Amino acid sequence: MEDELELKVRDGEVELVEGMLEDCQRRFSDLMNEETGEPFDTKLSVIQDKFLTEEEGGTCGGVILYARNRRIVCPNTLEDRLALTFEQELPKIRKLLFPKGF
Hints:
By secondary structure, the protein is α+β, with helices and mostly antiparallel strands. It has one domain (4-97): hypothetical protein PF0899 fold, CATH 3.30.2320.30. The chain has a four-stranded mixed sheet with strand order 2-1-3-4. The radius of gyration is 18 Å and the shape is extended. The protein has helices spanning 14-36, 78-97; strands spanning 4-8, 43-46, 62-67, 72-77.
């Protein structure tokens, strides 16, 4: 629900992501309008002077979203998403490994 979002991407992918920004903004606006019934516009921009590092999950790709002068951070790299999926599936894994509990 932010008016402006900044995206941190891998070095060398700036032009690729910038080429998709207009379409992403339009799709997001359409989705928000459909879900809330209210018009909503978000301005997306790519950070030009800092890029994803290996420590931030930049090895496999993805983006990190920033809002409110970079005080709100939303990592959305492949590594972050795999970690989230692992956390969500952990109870199922435990149940398979230890069917009678532990």
